[in-house]
Amino acid sequence: MSIQQEIEQLLSAQLKPVLLDVVNESHQHNVPANSETHFKVIVVSEHFVGVRKVARHQKIYSILAEQLKGPVHALAIHSYTNDEWQHEGLKVPLSPNCMGGSKGEDV
């Protein structure tokens, strides 16, 4: 099973999302081809009703603790209740360009 599939499975089981999108953004970073190190997750769940953003992120970090110890280097989290998701117009902010590694340096 891929890391992406693990993330999808774990978040689905714990948060019962109405929408879950796990995007492997590793190709946008200075990593080997086919890496699974950088992810963006969009989670819309009623489990987040009345829960502050920081606590939502802590919950997701807890669920993905094993993945974050090893293969996953970076995790962008966009967590919403269904009402918030509708209010946002069903849009997720774009991820910034990677400036890490040698990409941000003059060589």
Question: Features of this protein?
Answer:
alpha+beta, 33% helix, GMP Synthetase, Chain A, domain 3, single chain, three-stranded mixed sheet, 107 residues, globular
Q: Helical percent range?
A: 25-40%
CATH level-4 homologous superfamily: BolA-like
Q: What is the CATH topology?
A: GMP Synthetase, Chain A, domain 3
CATH class: Alpha Beta
User: What is the CATH architecture assignment?
Assistant: 2-Layer Sandwich
Rounded mean pLDDT score:
85
How many strand elements? 3
Total number of helices: 4
* Overall SS class: alpha+beta
SSE ordering:
HEEHHEH
Spans of at least 5 consecutive residues with low confidence? 103-107
Strand order of the largest sheet: 1-2-3
Shape category: globular
The whole-angstrom Rg is: 15 Å
Sheet with most strands: 3 strands, mixed
The overall number of domains is 1
Spatial gap, N to C terminus: 38 Å
What does this structure look like?
- This protein has 107 residues and is α+β, with helices and mostly antiparallel strands.
- It has one domain (3-91): BolA-like (GMP Synthetase, Chain A, domain 3, 2-Layer Sandwich).
- It is 33% helix and 19% strand.
- It contains four helices and three strands; from the N terminus they run H-E-E-H-H-E-H.
- The chain has helices at 3-15, 53-63, 65-69, 82-87, and strands at 19-24, 38-44, 74-80.
- The protein has a three-stranded mixed β-sheet.
- The radius of gyration is 15 Å and the shape is globular.
- The protein starts with a helix and ends in a 20-residue tail after the last helix.
